[in-house]
Write a structure and sequence with these properties.
Blueprint lengths: L17 E5 L5 E7 L2 E4 H6 L8 H6 L6 H4 L3 H15 L5 H8 L2 E3 L4 E2 L8 E4 L3 H11 L15 E3 L5 E3 L4 E2 L2 E4 L9 E4 L3 E2 L2 E7 L11 H4 L3 E8 L2 E2 H7 L13 E3 L4 E2 L7 E2 L18 H6 L1 E2 L2 E7 L1 H5 L5 E7 L7 H9 L10 E3 L14 H4 L7 E2 L5 E2 L7 E8 L7 E11 L3
Parallel strand pairs: 6-22, 8-16, 9-26
Antiparallel strand pairs: 1-2, 1-5, 2-3, 3-4, 6-7, 10-11, 12-15, 13-14, 13-22, 14-16, 14-17, 18-19, 20-21, 20-25, 23-24, 25-26
């Protein structure tokens, strides 16, 4: 498969991201991305290419979502990954190549579906740069609240409104604050629709109710990672946010990528956790692990691009809004899992934990319009002369993510797209 040998293809043999796609019969099938194709794991099972693998793995390859696969033992998933690499590798014999070729679908012909039915969705606030920059808009003298450096902050989102990339996002209606002191709030379409560049972590094996997950084991409870756009109605959010936090300003839609990159594919890109200044507090014991601190972060670049209706009509390329990196998050993925389960909360296979907006230290790395436009006060200028403070109807937000390192093939998370549709 020559396309998979291109160092910049993003889906080389070392990646093999999982997905769910519609087969010729319209039935959802588990697949793996390779080069410019999708390998049908159901067909591989039927052709006997998965013989010898654990029964649970073979059953998971015939499922309609990735949930069953995520619930399999880590060593069994490792065996499946090894088998797929053997089937697709250059050393495969002619009979194997023929059988594999018949199980391949060109990526442009594959209808990608939502890969996981997540029972629960949690959104964290793991970027200290995002938290500081947003806090500065509302509390200039005290942007970062005192608990931030001690405890991973998060909220429980709405799992039912998770939608796959490409699904239109309807501009939500909601209640917003009065325009004058002492006035009456109004109800109508949001006037400040925003996106948030995030990474989503899918839970592998969960934990029993009442039994925490130790920080030394928390990383093994993450199956894989995807791109995620946590759409936000900022004016609705700011009015309802006190005192209990995000609600209707967030729950109308969250877009997820159709691709789930297994953590094994990201192993070469693990890096030390973000260093903390000497005067900053050290995490409490249940959040501290030496191995996690030395290699618990991920050198993963995330970007946000905007394609407006005018850019689209003129045949122009999308405008890149920002670029940031997960290695700058204040909390590692393992710390997020360990904290979530620290009170005995039972995580389930396929549960989705989002990092929160990924922003870097520089203003150009801000992962949402709220930051980029200083609360909407400083509109951004696009190449064609358009400006944006908030998203307009017809705007399409495109998130991209990738890992790059000299001497290694690029590993991509694909794209996560969503176009804004007018309010009803």
């Amino acid at each position: 498969m020559e396309a998979a040998n291109d160092p910049a293809c993003g889906f080389p043999l070392q990646n093999l991201p999982y997905c769910v796609f519609a087969g010729d019969d319209g039935r959802p099938r588990v697949g793996a991305g390779i080069g410019k194709s999708v390998l049908d794991l159901r067909q591989c099972k039927g052709a006997g290419l998965l013989e010898g693998l654990p029964t649970a793995i073979q059953a998971a390859c015939e499922a309609r979502t990735l949930n069953m696969l995520m619930g399999c033992a880590a060593e069994d998933n490792g065996a499946l990954r090894g088998r797929l690499m053997d089937l697709l590798g250059a050393e495969a014999d002619e009979a194997t190549r023929d059988a594999v070729s018949s199980a391949l679908t060109p990526m442009e012909a594959a209808v990608l579906l939502k890969p996981v039915e997540s029972a629960n969705y949690t959104d964290f606030y793991a970027s200290i740069h995002h938290a500081t920059r947003v806090g500065r808009l509302f509390r200039p003298e005290n942007p970062l609240l005192p608990n931030y450096k001690h405890v991973p902050i998060g909220y429980h989102g709405r799992a039912s409104s998770l939608v796959v990339s490409g699904t239109a996002v309807r501009r939500p209606r909601g209640q917003t604050k009065p325009t004058e002191p002492g006035g009456v709030p109004s109800f109508g379409p949001t006037r400040f629709l925003d996106y948030e560049v995030e990474a989503g972590l899918y839970v592998a094996k969960g934990n029993r109710l009442g039994e925490p997950i130790g920080i030394d084991r928390a990383g093994s409870h993450i199956f894989g990672i995807s791109l995620l756009n946590d759409w936000s109605a900022r004016d609705i959010q700011s009015w309802e946010n006190q005192p209990l936090g995000p609600f209707l300003g967030k729950s109308f839609a969250t877009s997820v990528s159709p691709w789930v990159v297994p953590m094994a594919a990201l192993a070469p890109f693990r890096v030390p956790a973000q260093g903390r200044p000497p005067k900053d507090p050290k995490p409490l014991g249940y959040l501290w692990d030496g191995a996690d601190q030395s290699a618990g972060a991920i050198d993963l670049t995330v970007e946000a691009w905007l394609l407006t209706a005018a850019l689209r009509a003129a045949g122009l390329a999308p405008h890149r809004l920002s670029r940031a990196n997960l290695r700058e998050l204040w909390w590692t993925p393992a710390q997020l899992v360990a904290h979530h389960a620290s009170n005995g909360c039972n995580l389930l296979p396929g549960d989705l934990l989002a990092t929160g907006t990924v922003s870097g230290r520089e203003d150009a790395t801000a992962g949402c319009l709220l930051e980029l436009t200083c609360g909407g006060e400083q509109p951004i200028l696009l190449e064609n002369g358009e400006t944006r403070s908030g998203l307009e109807d017809g705007d399409e937000v495109i998130l991209r993510g990738f890992c790059r390192r000299e001497g290694l093939p690029e590993i991509t998370l694909g794209e996560c797209r969503g176009m804004v549709a007018a309010a009803i």
